[in-house]
């Protein structure tokens, strides 16, 4: 795969490919059934089929300044943290579970420490996950410190510094990152992430299914109706979602300050390249527009949806990430990290954040009310537009395929299969037998077996 940076100096994202003419939906290309937006059973199956097999975006590497810096996350019930190791300065992820009796080792959302002490019985670990001390265990026969490191989580850091994790604990079936998102790297290289710095984060707590948010994210059919600000910043007729390999590239032409040569001068009120009025900015002469101070200040959208639950949205003054964290079938937390262009003035930063938060809040409100109706159980499925909503169809098909494939494996095995589970081969021999009893009693709440009839 080409890793050469593409025209960063110009910061002009590439244009979308041309549409094939006369694309039409075939009969039956509807949304997935609405029950998949409300069912606890389906949610548990999605965890095993999708979330515990996928590469999930967490954070940007620029958030880690020194060894020991860590950030804690919970994704679909899995608690983990990402930390910069003092041993090799690499960014690594670990389950936030003490190897002794499972108390969480990290208790803050973020912090910095090269020694992580468990506050239950005092075991401590280094920033590389290795057990340092287990009080009073020195004399215990058969206890090997090296066999009690924190459970690692598969981690991948991209060239651009995007940190991903994958909970699949079966090395045989983990799809390597570059194959999972084949082609993504060269597209992300159209944007110079190194020219941006962390600005702020915020969170929204949604009473809706994770797919309710993804449905809206994966199309801009709703934008002219629901996002007046966005629609005045970008030419909605040019908005295009192009499915790739487990990701989609979104394209849209920005409404530029400068008009094409053949067109008349712009109206004075279209002063910002967001189409929003800048405060306290000197107005350019209508006769001769000054060159923009920021040459990258007006490029077209470079937005990427990353299956299943993430978005990376690159604008000229800032880029931001979306972490969609499923909590239950009808509860999802949305987390946004915003990175602004280095040296950007505070007014422009604020303008961007206001713009972004307005759009995201508009989406949030759409999701809240949509989910209420999905919960009613009256609506079952809807028809998707072949082009305007092909991004929705694309990701829903991935959901359907992964769920169906995994469900078939579970049916063949006669029990739930959780790819994230870490079995302790050193545990007592009868653990397997005792787990089997539990399986037969359908008591494995963590694996969701109680939700399925076998
Ligand atoms: S659970 Fe952590 S020391 Fe016991
Ligand atoms: Fe939207």
From TrEMBL:
<dbReference type="InterPro" id="IPR015879">
    <property type="entry name" value="Ring_hydroxy_dOase_asu_C_dom"/>
</dbReference>
<protein>
    <recommendedName>
        <fullName>Choline monooxygenase, chloroplastic</fullName>
        <ecNumber>1.14.15.7</ecNumber>
    </recommendedName>
</protein>
<keyword id="KW-0408">Iron</keyword>
<dbReference type="Pfam" id="PF00848">
    <property type="entry name" value="Ring_hydroxyl_A"/>
</dbReference>
<feature type="domain" description="Ig-like">
    <location>
        <begin position="419"/>
        <end position="454"/>
    </location>
</feature>
<comment type="pathway">
    <text>Amine and polyamine biosynthesis; betaine biosynthesis via choline pathway; betaine aldehyde from choline (monooxygenase route): step 1/1.</text>
</comment>
<feature type="domain" description="Rieske">
    <location>
        <begin position="55"/>
        <end position="154"/>
    </location>
</feature>
<dbReference type="InterPro" id="IPR017941">
    <property type="entry name" value="Rieske_2Fe-2S"/>
</dbReference>
<keyword id="KW-0001">2Fe-2S</keyword>
<dbReference type="GO" id="GO:0005506">
    <property type="term" value="F:iron ion binding"/>
</dbReference>
<dbReference type="GO" id="GO:0019285">
    <property type="term" value="P:glycine betaine biosynthetic process from choline"/>
</dbReference>
<keyword id="KW-0479">Metal-binding</keyword>
<dbReference type="InterPro" id="IPR036922">
    <property type="entry name" value="Rieske_2Fe-2S_sf"/>
</dbReference>
<feature type="region of interest" description="Disordered">
    <location>
        <begin position="1"/>
        <end position="24"/>
    </location>
</feature>
<dbReference type="InterPro" id="IPR001663">
    <property type="entry name" value="Rng_hydr_dOase-A"/>
</dbReference>
<dbReference type="InterPro" id="IPR007110">
    <property type="entry name" value="Ig-like_dom"/>
</dbReference>
<keyword id="KW-0411">Iron-sulfur</keyword>
<dbReference type="GO" id="GO:0051537">
    <property type="term" value="F:2 iron, 2 sulfur cluster binding"/>
</dbReference>
<comment type="function">
    <text>Catalyzes the first step of the osmoprotectant glycine betaine synthesis.</text>
</comment>
<keyword id="KW-0560">Oxidoreductase</keyword>
<dbReference type="GO" id="GO:0019133">
    <property type="term" value="F:choline monooxygenase activity"/>
</dbReference>
<feature type="region of interest" description="Disordered">
    <location>
        <begin position="256"/>
        <end position="294"/>
    </location>
</feature>
<comment type="similarity">
    <text>Belongs to the choline monooxygenase family.</text>
</comment>
<dbReference type="Pfam" id="PF00355">
    <property type="entry name" value="Rieske"/>
</dbReference>
